[in-house]
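Hey, I was hoping to borrow your eyes for a little while. No rush at all, and the record is pasted right below:
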Amino acid sequence: MTQQEGKAPVSRNRDNKCSGPFKLSDQPPHYLSAVEYNDIPEMVRVLNLNKEIYNGTASFQYPYLESHALTRLENIYIRDNQSGYTNCWAMRASPKGPLIGWIHTYFLPEDSGTRVHPESGRELKVGVIGYWVSPEHTGKGHGARAARFVVQEYLFKERGCDIVRAEAYTHNVPSRKVLEAVGMECEVEEWTTFIPKLQKDMVICCYAIHRDEATKSVVTDKTKDP
């Protein structure tokens, strides 16, 4: 376990709900379970295999350091411990096997009723997903399988989300195929945004899936949705 300057890392509450392991597939074997500190070495190795994941995301650094992973997990654990739910999982080929990918969720902030249900008027709950798969394990459906499970079983059924959103660079065809395989539809085909790590504008597309037909009129609005 990595540790900074004698500071004890934030502990993950083992009682958090939905930590897994969850079995998603026999062939190929595919499980989801909470990301642990002992996943950091493998996470660092995978994210430094090449710049594929760096190029496909807005946030990952390259080279990726243990300090980056530690900070991310600590922030995740703080948030999860406050909510009582696990919101970030490792994809694995066995229940306790090494990390082969990652999927996380978060919820858009409350914003005083600017996103409301068209029929009831109640405030909507909107979730967001993000994911990556090791370059050594692509082409096996891991991304789509994990995203489908997290959207349907976790965000819709367990957390009561009305809408789940995701973003991808417009040119990132594999990521877009994952979202479409989950049943998401593209709501914004081109949105230009500044990516700090690249120090340039990039074009992203915005996808969403709705729990019921009534909310389909509530499309992504980049003036409100981060």
Observations:
- The two ends are 33 Å apart (CA to CA).
